[in-house]
């Protein structure tokens, strides 16, 4: 799902890492927001359409990340795309004639998906060919020397020559390979179980989402600290932490 599809499907933005207030009522903007549907029998009716616990089908929310993170399922594709793109001017690392020729073939409506994947692999190979023996690839448009791109081992990250200079603001497209919004499922599929009058037991999904909301809030806070670019590492740490939470 694209970020805008996730938003369209949702009734409410979830941004608070708490579920109940001191009055034991679900907090608005929290993970058990009454607009997602009643989280259990005692919480009254759904705040979206007014149905009771039994009749409300549940509604989705969404969580807007302060900065995008990798979708672990698309890491390979993102690495391939980065291999083909100049880290300075964002142009494709192919000679212009070759780029036009490949684009023409790729847009051929008669070409099946398998052939397209093959063609894509060939383009990645060509763009990466020079970097294979650790030689940088020179961009034919701006002359920038592009080093190798690889998946980092043991963590959810991609290493390339710009990433070392904290070049974290590189614009990546297509952006849908990254995660910018996370759907928050209705409370019916992750009920808040009443243990007794003053205690509830939260579902694993709710707890997991809570960790993401809290990591996201820390990153948002760090971003507003207005640090000079040289201290970009300051929020990089909380960004990495958010990546780890989302990847779980
Ligand atoms: Zn409802
Ligand atoms: Zn370039």
Automatic annotation (TrEMBL):
Gene3D superfamilies: RNA polymerase II, clamp domain (4.10.860.120). Keywords: DNA-directed RNA polymerase, Metal-binding, Nucleotidyltransferase, Transcription, Transferase, Zinc. This is DNA-directed RNA polymerase. One of its GO terms (cellular component) is DNA-directed RNA polymerase complex. Pfam families: RNA_pol_Rpb1_1. One of its GO terms (biological process) is DNA-templated transcription. GO terms for molecular function: DNA binding; DNA-directed RNA polymerase activity; metal ion binding. Residues 1-153, 170-247 form the RNA polymerase Rpb1 domain. It comes from the Eukaryota. Its EC number is 2.7.7.6.
